[in-house]
Amino acid sequence: MKAVVLTGLRQMELRDVPAPKIKKDTDVLLKIEMVGVCGSDVHYYETGRIGSQIVEYPFVVGHECAATVAAVGKSVRNVKVGDPVVVDPAVSCHKCFQCKLGRENTCYNLRFLGTPGQGGGCLCEYIVMSQECCYPTKGALTFEQAVLCEPLSIAAYSVERAKVPKNANIAILGAGPIGLCTFVSAKAKDINTCYMTEKIPERVDTARKAGATWVGNPDKQDIVNEVLKQQPDGLDVAFECAGQQETVDQCMDLLRAGGTLVLTGIPRFDRVSLAIDKMRRKEITIVNIRRQNEFTQKSVDLIASGRVNVDFMVTHHFPLAETQKAFDLVAGYHDGVIKAMISM
Q1: What is the domain range of residue 223?
Q2: E strands along 57-204, which residues?
């Protein structure tokens, strides 16, 4: 089968590789239809690592995908050949201490698509996944929507963990795919206002058109001052979706006493600093997000019901042979890209 493999920093090749086969009775062979380029994929492309997870070349990345069932193991019951599915890229062991606590997202033996040391990715024609990772869309979602269920599940989970109150005033710093998914997830919870920040002009426009109360560019204005003019008591919840020290600091300044800081963005560095005196005096609650836990089906349902709209996030399409162009586009934030899709 065809697969796109990383062969070095900012280097990719389209290769012929062996096709995977069903080995377990609960396995599902999936024909990949579409793959989304995620920021974490770009981290591996540009730097060869995320923290302690270091790429050994050649390596296939990619974890946001929509697929069609090509074959099933004899014990598979939830999907059948021909079903279009959303793919949860994480496989938990269901046996470790964390899994027994109901925290499959922090499973000690977690295996995740496109992650060094855990498993290859989905930038290829076929993959094999456990049936528990396959969520049938029943024709209610397009392939683009099915791909976006993965980032949406993270965002919806972060909103749930933040315990966003009804009529809340919130901030989302970073208007990339995760930030925008967080916005539509929070909007479905009947928030009062949402203030967003973003440095890329096209994304500022997109966030405004999506319905954010206010969107500011921190390179051009004092966003903390501007927001607090409108919300002098501060905000209930601030979602950090950019993975930057400056956005963590801005979140801390924007929050009211007793507010909640949600850390969703993935930094490219090993440590961030928190203004401990400010955090203590304001009694800020810190919520750290590790992917999502049992939110894939909820994301499918949110889109299928029409409660959230994710279609506006898809800005670019590429064939598999032009995957490197897609990665370079996303890495450079060119041409107003939000979510680039790769079709098989």
Answers
A1: 152-288
A2: 64-72, 84-87, 90-91, 111-112, 126-130, 134-136, 169-173, 193-197
Average pLDDT over residues 119-140: 97
Residue 317 lies in a domain: yes
Total domains in the chain come to 2
Band of residue 194 on the pLDDT scale cut at 50, 70, 90: very high
* Tokens 């930094």 belong to residue: 267
The two beta strands, 53-54 and 64-72, are unpaired
Q: What's the pLDDT at 51?
A: 86
CATH of the domain at 46: 3.90.180.10
For the purposes of burial, counting CB atoms within 10 Å of the CB of 21, is it exposed (0-12), middle (13-18) or buried (19 or more)?
Answer: exposed
User: What is the average per-residue pLDDT within 172-195?
Assistant: 97
CA angle 319–308–304, rounded 5-degree value: 75
Identify whether 297 is part of a domain: no
Q: Is residue 296 part of a domain?
A: no
